[in-house]
Amino acid sequence: VVSWNAMIHGYVNNEHGQKAVELFAQMQREQVEPNSVTFLGAFNAIASISALEMARYVHCQLIQSEVHLDVTLGNSIIDMYGKCGSIEDACRVFNGMPTRNVISWNAMIGGYLKCNQGIEALELYKQMNEEHVNPSVVTFVNVLTACASIRCLEEGKHIHEHVIQSGYEMDNHIGGCLVDMYSKCGDLDDAYKIFEKMCAPNVVVWNAMIAGYAKSGEEKTAIKLYLQMLEKHVKPDSVTFVAVLNACSSIASLEEGRRVHQKAINFGCESEPFVGSGLIHMYSKCGSIEDACQVFKSLRACDIVIWTSMLDGYAMHGLGKEALCLFEQMCKEDLPMS
RNA sequence: CUCCCAUUGAC
Questions:
Q1: Beta carbon of A48 within 7 Å of strand B?
Q2: Cβ within 7 Å of strand B: which of A 63-82?
Q3: Residue nearest to nucleotide B6 (CA to C1')
Q4: Is A208 exposed, middle or buried (0-12, 13-18, 19+ CB in 10 A)?
Q5: Does pTM surpass 0.90?
Q6: How many CB atoms lie under 10 A from the CB of residue A135?
Q7: What mean pLDDT is predicted for residues A267-295?
C-alpha cells in the first residue's frame, strides 16, 4: 500500500491528477486496501481535476471503510469539495467535524474563495477570531486574497493590522499578498510602500506590483518596473510577460511589445497559453495583425481565449472574411464556445 | 507515502 500511495502522491504533485485517480482505482481492482494516506492522495487528485461526482463517491467510500476519519482527512475533504466547487458539501463536512484545527478553518475559507464568495470567507475569518482560533500565515494569505477579490480596502487594512499584531515577519509570501491586496483595491501608493520595503522580493511580488500598475492605467510605470526587475536579475515568468504585454496593449506600444516578445522567447515563455493570447492581443491592439497571425500559427495548443483573441483581432482590423474563415475552423475544434 | 496558501490572458 505504501508503494501505491507514493505513486499516487507522485502523480498528484506533478499535475497528473487524472493519472493519480486511475491509479487509485487500479489499486482497488488489485485488492489492495487503501489506508488514510491513500485517501489523502485520492482527495488531492480529485480536487486537482475538480471532479465533484467522484469526490462524493470516494468520500462515501471512506465512510464505509475501516479507515478512521480524523482531522487531517476531514480537512482534505473540505479542501476537495471547495476545489470541486461545492461549498455546500464543504460546509456540511466542516460543520460536522467533532474537532477542528486551524487548517480546517483555512481550508473552509479557501473553499469560499475558490467559489468566489469573498464576503463569506471574511465572515468565517471573523467567526474564527470569535472562537479564539489562532490564525496562521495561510489564514492571512487567504483572507488578504479575499479582500483583494472583493476589492475591500477597509477590511484589507484591518487584516494588515492583524498581520502586524501577530508578529509574522514581512516575508515574500505575506508581502506579496499585501501588495496584491492594496493594488487590487486601488491603493497603489500603499502597495508600493510595502513593495519597496521588502528586502528581496521574489518574482510573484514583482508580478503583483507590475500587474497592479498595468491594470490601474499606469502602464508606463508597469513597464518601468518590469525593466527594473530584469536589471536586478529576478527571472521573469509567464505571469510577468502576460502582465507587461497587457500594459503594452493598453498603450498600443508596438515597439515595447516587440521587445517584451523577444524577452519572452529568451526566457522560454512564448508558447505558454496565457502568453500566447497576450501576444496576439498585444499585436492586434498595436496595429500589427500580421504579427498576431504569426504568433497564432506558431502555437500548438490553442484554447478558447487564444482563438477569441485572434478572431477579435481580425474583426477589429476589418478583416471580416478572415474572421469568418477562422470561425469555421474554430467550430471544428472541441472548444467550450460561449 | 501524510491535510490548507499569494501574482497573469480574449470577447
A1: no
A2: 71-72, 75-76, 79
A3: A177
A4: buried
A5: yes
A6: 22
A7: 98
